[in-house]
Amino acid sequence: MSTENEGAAVPPEAGSRPAPPAPHPDPAPAVPPAPDFKPAVGTAPAAPQAPIGPPGEPAAGSGLPEPAAPTPAQAGPSPATAPAPGADPARPGAWWSEADGRPQDASQAASHADAHEGAPGAPGAPGGPWGAGAPLPPSDPPARKRTGGLVAALLAAVLVAGGIGGGIGYWAADREAGGDSTTISALGNPKSESRAPGSVSDIAGKALPSVVTIEAEGSNGEGGTGTGFVYDKQGHILTNNHVVASAADNGKLTATFSNGKRYTAEVVGRAQGYDVAVIKLKNASDAKLTPLPLGDSDKVSVGDATVAIGAPFGLSGTVTTGIVSAKNRPVASSDGGGGNASYMSALQTDASINPGNSGGPLLNADGGVIGINSAIQSAGNGGGLGGETQQSGSIGLGFAIPINQAKNVAQQLIKTGEPVYPVIEATVNMKDTGNGATIAANGAGGTPAVVPGGPADKAGLKSGDVIVKLNDTVIDSGPTLISEIWTHKPGDKVTITYKRDGKQSTTQVTLGQRKGDS
């Protein structure tokens, strides 16, 4: 509703006061009464012939009794509808249309779409739809600006909106002195406020108290920020190795919960090759430890919803969402500190993860952990999430260690303090890509590439053989082979497909083991 040009009504010239209209027999609340007659289309009612006397006196010679004073509910248009000075009150300003039963000004018979306030045929003007062209007499003093009609009109608008749109919203106009202002208030959405089980807000609300921000500082004062989450009620926190590596030797570690409580921590064990580490809180008897439920990463499907929680660039408690974009994505990553690379057959997600998200949980739609966020592919070809020289942001290519693998590693670290890796005891080229993993001519320091008596030797593999498949997974490079082997456990039997002299063959290998990262 426009509020322009509204103010006190201007009284008509002396001696030109018209008679007040007769009260309507059954007026609707807050709505001006319609005339009790409906002239034929195109015919304006005739102007009164007898002179019009002052209010409260019958017109001379009319023979009509004095009309009763209208009640407030029966009052006609507000003083804002009084004609401007010089206007002819006897001018027939409107008649009724057969089309919609609404009054139209004679000059607006063809179209009333362009009417505006103050113009003939518009609300608040002579001949407008709120009366039949007979304005009310003004009060003796100039009328002050009235808000009752506005409130009533707003109330009617709210009732109509509620009936049609279910109460989506309403308009409230502040008409106080100092200027006009119009605001919109939302009534709220019960569905969004219900926080239904399985919604992102529900998942985040349950998981956030179990996620910690880890600050690591080495003895040289260097370090960084990452994320971890409560693994068990004994105070173990699961995270990435590259998050805590700088503080592993005489450094400082702290873990801060979402409620602001901070605890010092120590490294229980770390696996550089898996990029998994376990730390434990110190003096945390008052900590409320609620382990996050672990999902089954083997049952994940491409397209499943994901929720990532972490501290990107130090912003603790950040929640982002996405989907599982791919499975079994071979990824080799590094912390940028010159250490050995880590290999994983990763879950790929487009949930936004950035430096500082490292070690944080990747959750499914049930709130279960399906992975540990560990690496991103950035526009600058950055690797791991924590510590690279150039910390590039997310471009929708994030990678997480499958939780089934991380769980096995965590149990090893808690039990013995060191990781155990499944191996075939054969050295493969790490730079060749696209055609498979080629067994090198020699191992480290000139040793045989295929360890005599090891699993690969027992399976008949030799230098020069090109491994192209492990079980049903296609192998296109050395890192892919290692990533896939490390999803298994020592003692597992796998089928390897390889090429030798252009001929393709298969063999079965029982995986051996290697302890520690040396």
Automatic annotation (TrEMBL):
PROSITE patterns: PDZ. It comes from Streptomyces cuspidosporus. Residues 425-477 form the PDZ domain. Residues 37-50, 58-94, 104-122 have a biased composition (Low complexity). Keywords: Hydrolase, Membrane, Protease, Transmembrane, Transmembrane helix. This is PDZ domain-containing protein. PANTHER family: PEPTIDASE S12 (PTHR43343), PROTEASE DO-LIKE 8, CHLOROPLASTIC (PTHR43343:SF3). Pfam families: PDZ_2, Trypsin_2. Residues 1-144 are annotated as: Disordered. The chain crosses the membrane at residues 150-173. Residues 18-36 have a biased composition (Pro residues). It comes from the Bacteria.
